[in-house]
Design brief:
Elements: H1 3-11, H2 19-29, E1 34-37, H3 44-58, E2 64-68, H4 72-85, E3 93-96, H5 102-110, E4 115-118, H6 120-128, E5 137-142, H7 145-150, H8 154-161, E6 169-174, H9 179-188, E7 193-196, E8 206-211, H10 216-227, E9 235-238, H11 242-254, E10 259-262, H12 268-279, E11 285-288, E12 303-306, H13 313-320, E13 330-335
Parallel strand pairs: 1-6, 1-7, 2-4, 2-5, 3-4, 5-6, 8-13, 9-11, 9-12, 10-11, 12-13
Length: 336
């Protein structure tokens, strides 16, 4: 990697690559198509961003990169990492996502950024409006493919891909490969290298336990008991419904357990403020619907609590994967 990228990594305290980085980066630099199977917290964002930055920095023409993600939070997280890794390299990115103003995003697109990171719906809108030009796109990244399909974005994704030149490099990352995902990958990848660094369904370092509570009141009593213990340092609580998530955060705050909430009814700035408060330690409890589990990287979450049970096993795996990041121990509790 170029000396400036290495310097940027050193400044951020990155010393040793994770397994997915170690295995994927050389293949991506060779120009191969890649399927990366990795648990949450495995460092896969850097696994595709670092070689992409290397390639963008060494090219003389203006080839561009498109990264498609399921949620706006993940898109913004990828942009944050891109800016850190490409610092002082004159490489520009823009995020195209719903829930934020259209005009600033169009303005950024017209500046011809090197990398566009976006969610399928907004990308499709910009294609229709002829604001997004993909004829010079030489690298396509699909991140969290399983979530993109779970959220019903397959038609949009196919529409976007049909506008990208066939002669490109495609990189796909997913926690799982279902038959539907396999069909999509077969259509869009050429002779891909498959890299699997999945340890187990949830990583062996996340201790999992259930808590029996019959009524909502009993659940609340048990939850307060848990949160009163010192080692519950940074707690992510999952609920099923938007209104119940907000209600729970408000209730905990009134009981002297300062909490913030993120869910679909909040505006993007409100969601970002809540995430920032939790990340920076201003509050140590975040109550969220499943949307927060989609790839969000919050360091040092000590406990995940499923206050409401997730609907599917995949959702469960995604939720508890918010703790025990980068191999650290974590603890997950589920109320039944």
């Amino acid at each position: 990697l170029r000396s400036q990228i290495v310097a940027n990594l050193t400044n951020k305290g990155y010393k040793i690559p994770t397994r997915i980085q170690d295995e994927a980066i050389p293949q991506i630099l060779k120009g191969r198509d890649v399927i990366g199977l990795a648990n949450a917290g495995s460092g896969k964002t850097a696994a595709f961003l670092l070689p992409i930055i290397q390639k963008l920095a060494t090219q003389s023409n203006r080839d561009t990169v498109l990264v498609i993600t399921p949620t706006r939070e993940l898109a913004q997280q990828i942009q944050t990492e891109f800016r850190v890794f490409s610092d002082k390299m004159q490489l520009y990115s823009t995020v195209c996502v719903g829930g934020l103003g259209v005009r600033p995003q169009i303005r950024d697109l017209r500046r011809k950024p090197h990398i566009v990171i976006g969610t399928p719906g907004r990308l499709k809108d910009f294609l229709k409006q002829r604001e997004l030009h993909l004829e010079n796109t030489t690298t396509l990244v699909l991140d969290e493919v399983d979530q993109i399909l779970d959220m019903g974005f397959l038609p949009d994704v196919k529409n976007i891909i049909s506008n990208i030149p066939k002669n490109r490099q495609s990189l796909c990352f997913s926690a799982t490969i279902t038959p539907q995902i396999k069909r999509l990958l077969d259509e869009m990848l050429v002779d891909p290298v498959k890299i699997s660094v999945r340890t187990s369904e949830t990583g062996n370092h996340i201790a999992q336990d259930i808590i029996k509570a019959g009524t909502p009141d009993e659940k609340m009593v048990e939850l307060v008991k848990m949160l009163s213990q010192d080692h519950f340092e940074k707690v992510l609580i999952f609920g099923e419904m938007k209104h119940s998530v907000q209600k729970l955060a408000d209730k905990l705050s009134k009981m002297n357990f300062p909490a913030v909430a993120i869910h679909g009814n909040k505006s993007q700035p409100q969601r970002q403020n809540a995430l920032a408060a939790f990340k920076n330690g201003k509050v140590n409890i975040l109550v969220a619907t499943g949307v927060a589990a989609r790839g969000i990287d919050i360091p040092n979450v000590s406990h995940v609590i499923n206050f409401d049970q997730p609907q599917t096993h995949e959702e469960y795996v995604h939720r508890i994967g918010r703790t025990g990041r980068a191999g650290r121990p974590g603890q997950a509790y589920t109320f039944v």
